[in-house]
Amino acid sequence: MVISTEMLEHAEYWEKTISNIKNICVPGGLMLLTTRSKGFGYHAYPHDYWRYEKEDMEKIFSDCEILEIEKDNQAAGIFIKARKPLGFKEKDLSKYELYSIVTGKKMHKIEDKDRKNLHFYKIILKLQINHVIYVINKTIRDFIKFLVRWDSV
Fold first, then answer.
1. Residues 14-54: tens digit of each pLDDT
2. Given this model, what pLDDT does residue 30 score?
3. 96 CB contacts (<8 Å, ≥6 apart)?
4. Alpha-carbon separation of residue 143 from 36, 146, 152 (angstroms)
5. What percentage of the chain carries pLDDT values higher than 90?
6. How far apart are CA 112 and CA 69, in angstroms?
7. Calpha distance 103→115 (Å, rounded)
8. Helix (H) or strand (E) holding 24
9. DSSP string, 95-124
10. Most CB atoms closer than 10 Å: which of 32, 105, 137, 144?
11. pTM for the full model?
12. How far apart, in whole angstroms, are the C-alpha atoms of residue 61 and residue 116?
């Protein structure tokens, strides 16, 4: 059994990663995967590249027996359970495109220039602004707690 949870969106070379998952699984073995879909925010720990939809997983694992595939009801994501067939022959995915959170469009691979586009800068700026707002709010809450404690002395 091969298990991959919440990792695929962080693999820059998604095709190679999925190929490795399929190839280390023994014939008849199971692959259980979870990953994020379009609509899930950027979360670089340290990187975030791709979003997988149900249709993507159906295509990517069309060389396997898909036992279950469903959307995550808690957050935008996909769960898939597939079995590697006994006569496994890997399908070519070299032309298949996924939605990239970095560029905001479907593509096969990320290049350095893609990390310098306006879409990506907006995502990073939004993250930074949200972090600053969080820090300011936390500082204000902590200061109010301090004032309340100080006032009671």
1. 999 999 999 999 999 999 999 999 999 888 878 899 999 99
2. 98
3. 15, 56, 59, 60, 108
4. 37, 5, 14
5. 61
6. 33
7. 8
8. helix 14-24
9. T--EEETTTTEEES---GGGGGSHHHHHHH
10. 32
11. 0.77
12. 32
